[in-house]
Design brief:
Length: 431
Amino acid sequence: MKYINYTDCSNTELKAMLFDRTPDNYDKYDDIVTDIINDVKKNGNEAIYRYCKKFDNVTLNEESLKVSKEEIEEAYDQIDEELVGIIRKAKKRIKVYHEKQKKYSWFDSCDLGTIMGQKVTPIEKVGVYVPGGKAVYPSSVIMNVMPAKVVGVNQIVMVTPPDKSGKVNPVTLVAANECGVSEIYKVGGAQAIAALAFGTETIPKVYKIVGPGNIFVALAKKAVYGYVSIDSIAGPSEVLVIADEDANPKYVAADLLSQAEHDELASAILVTNSEKLGQEVKEEIARQTDYLSRKEILQKSLNDFGVIVVVKSIDEAIRLSNEIAPEHLEICTKEPFMILPKINNAGAIFLGNYSPEPLGDYMAGPNHVLPTNGTAKFFSPLSVDDFIKKSSIISFSREALEDLQEDIIKFANAEKLTAHANSIKVRFEND
């Protein structure tokens, strides 16, 4: 793990390090992804079966592509009841939080006879991508599905890669069933995104695709944007911790490691004004890494994208954090709520020693699908807003339109749009 004293040069170094992780830096994969998308668009299920065989080493057909009711029932028998209870508890907490975000239609009127407003409508069909591969993510199922369920999305189609026996992880299936997913298909990668975007003989076309994935999934979502809507182009996970001398080095090290274990491209950054804390955290990271199960991933991630930055003051730490705009920001200082108003750019903010980032991953309630790679400067966490559309409502009486007719006609003529002006004029020609 790198250890640096902060200067303008180190700022440039940090930006370069983080840029290496961004999906925008993966141009070499574009042609592969484009070929897969075009193949699925043209050949449908047949292409899906070929890619499942090629990438997942599993043979599927029309009957086995979709997860059956029997497979879901079998999944409940394979996991213990306590875990089912925890999934239900997490679902409830996440549902309650997102219910507070709901938007409602509204209407406003005036004496002249105008009605203006906004109609809020759920997106009808949504696709959810759930990763497989290196880890199992039932939490990702809950976080992506519950906001859609809260606003009343009618059809939620989930895709996720199967194992070599053609099965989906039972915990993932239970989470999907508990959250009310409409249908589940055993396909991953760029081919799954293409299937959701364009439809096949079996997999329905959706109107929006959400959910994280690997490089190929991220690039596929980018490629199909415009044919469908997407949530974002998610990059690798990241955490930045602002800490002072009052922070507990054991806690800080554990939280940095909790992000670094996601994958080799994950980034863990500590920014502190305490040289002593920085050294203690470095020692704790070495000690704790030794007994954790994903040791190789941790070491690779920390070597490439882990850094302890020592700054002169907490204000300097805040400025650096706002510039990086981290996905997860932990504030482990004596007075974390005093710092909160100064934070402008962060996906999720965790305040105090007992608000570790994994709390947000699973049970707190706020969504863990967050903007990465500095996009917290202009993007927000996944929310109910991602699953609704808004339509403007306009209704004018003759009297109300007459009151504005001259203004509209002059405006239209100024833009040389005479048909626009005529549309108003013809309504009052007989006066």
